[in-house]
């Protein structure tokens, strides 16, 4: 607990985790937007290779992860003494609540840090979330404009009760917001 780590900014989380690593061989971080922001910084400070998006643990040094949009599985072996690993959230069964792992208290780093949390805006949508949607209607740069994206993609997604997706190129061109 502490104000400096409340919003899980990478600098503060790295300052919290790295000193604790002397007593551990690995840190497992969810492969979320936040986790993918924090893990590289921790790996760099520890001077180790980050293992990303793993879906299986073969042994203490060997892991599997998807490549080519999930069409192939890569087996990765790390010889680093410390491991910084992001884990795909749906890859493992949820742990039971009757475990006996100990909880170690840590003091939040004091800072100041170069980055700081400024504000947060919550966006409410009646559409399903993109990450968990059963159906997604997506558009790309070929639509040509924000107006065409809104005219074709959004109504179709509404009819299908689908999430709206957009390619990186469509987002960069301003056709769709970054949260699609």
Automatic annotation (TrEMBL):
Gene Ontology cellular component list: mitochondrial matrix
GO biological-process terms attached to the record: fatty acid beta-oxidation using acyl-CoA dehydrogenase
Electron transfer flavoprotein alpha/beta-subunit N-terminal domain ranges (all copies): 1-121
Q: Where in the cell is it found?
A: Mitochondrion matrix
What the entry lists under InterPro entries is as follows: DHS-like_NAD/FAD-binding_dom, ETF_a/b_N, ETF_a/FixB, ETF_alpha_N, ETF_asu_C, Rossmann-like_a/b/a_fold
Entries under Pfam families matching the protein: ETF, ETF_alpha
Q: Listed GO molecular functions?
A: electron transfer activity; flavin adenine dinucleotide binding
State which residue ranges cross the membrane.
none
Give the family per the record.
Belongs to the ETF alpha-subunit/FixB family.
Q: What is this protein called?
A: Electron transfer flavoprotein alpha/beta-subunit N-terminal domain-containing protein
The organism of origin for this protein: Hemiselmis tepida
Lineage of origin: Eukaryota, Cryptophyceae, Cryptomonadales, Hemiselmidaceae, Hemiselmis
